[in-house]
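User: Predict structure, ligand uridine-5'-diphosphate-xylopyranose.
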Amino acid sequence: MRISVIGCGYLGAVHSAALASMGHEVVGVDIDGERIAALSQGVAPFFEPRLEELLREGLDAGRLRFTTDIADVAGATVHFVCVGTPERKTSRAADLTFVEQAIDELAPHLERGQVVAAKSTVPVGTAERLSPRVEARGATLVWNPEFLREGWAVRDSIEPDRIVVGVAGTPAGEAAADVLREVYRDTVASGTPFLVTDWATAELVKVAANAYLATKISFINAMAEIAEVTGADVTLLADALGHDGRIGRRYLGSGIGFGGGCLPKDIRAFVARAEELGRGESVAFLREVEAVNLRRRERAVQLTVDALGGQVFEKRITVLGAAFKPHSDDIRDSPALEVAVRLKGLGAAVTVTDPAALDNARLRYPQLRYVDDRDEALRGADAVVVVTEWDEYRRRLTPEHAASLTAGRVVVDGRNCLDAAAWRAAGWTYRGMGRP
Ligand code: UDX
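Assistant: Predicted complex:
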């Protein structure tokens, strides 16, 4: 099928490459010329495992190309809209400028019978509001949310847990759902559930999923706060809870909490939208979810200060991690960097290292000192703070090796990812989050 993808950021770049790998003929469009030039060479503009491989396969096979010219979308059967919906500068609501622009720029090129499938995360009600602009051209709007996780984006695109398609309850809507079923034919054939819903449900699935995940993380971090005053160990608690099949262990990882380009902004936008709809009380708990999340960052700072005897002024602190999670170079709303910046604000001499995110971190927080090499970063440190659970720190850094480099023997495990007993046995003062 001929397909266009409008917006080649995280979502669009991965989606374009994934569609080409399914055998479609894909053109990706973006206004950023540099990005398009890189993608056209098979170079991913961000760190994402397997993406470059997939891009090159598509480019070599002649099924994938990238352009800055929106007119190149002409003739595609389906147009995927994959532009961003950042937080507004003046409120917590989502800024829909890019989605509206994309639809308006796409509209003159639409033909009767074509499908516009929007993947961007939007406030519920957006599809209904934008649909007339698509219908005016004889095309049909569907909402097809994306659930991909950074670091697993390729896999999540090719083998998603489910495919959700929100349509208008009209014959054209039903026909458009069939077109999407055809786009994802092989995925559906392999057993992936394909759910056809109304627009509002499809829009809600995405924000509700992110709200649930954020709530689960904050739940276990709230338990960590209770553990801290009772002597319980939140990691053992999470293991025990996780054995209950109704609860499950995933997203019960305690520590400094969630960040990134989605969870924090999506729950804020959800609260804003619910308030607009007069249902603020229904999701008021998400404000607590956010509050717990932010408290954990402060708690990691406090633990470090305490472990260093009450003050960190001029202490050399090595922060292991900058990305908001491992397998990513994304530092948007990164709890890791917030901890680093706060320690620096208290007068500590902070050195940050990370296997992937330092270029981004340098641009965003030039006040911090960055060292690419992990061991070089550890040399002479009074304390080590682990804030992103990369394997380089979790598995491939032994307490003995770390001790051969640092001056002090204090480690704060902001992700509860280290073997506390092993670090203690090697002479370290170990502090975890919600662990005795
Ligand atoms: C998330 C959703 O998972 C995905 O479905 C959606 O499409 C986009 O948002 P992503 O932002 O890539 O994906 O990150 P995710 O892997 O979900 O992690 C989010 C944050 O939660 C990270 O900062 C991570 O460190 C933190 N986290 C995750 C925890 O603190 N504990 C956990 O147990 C899991």
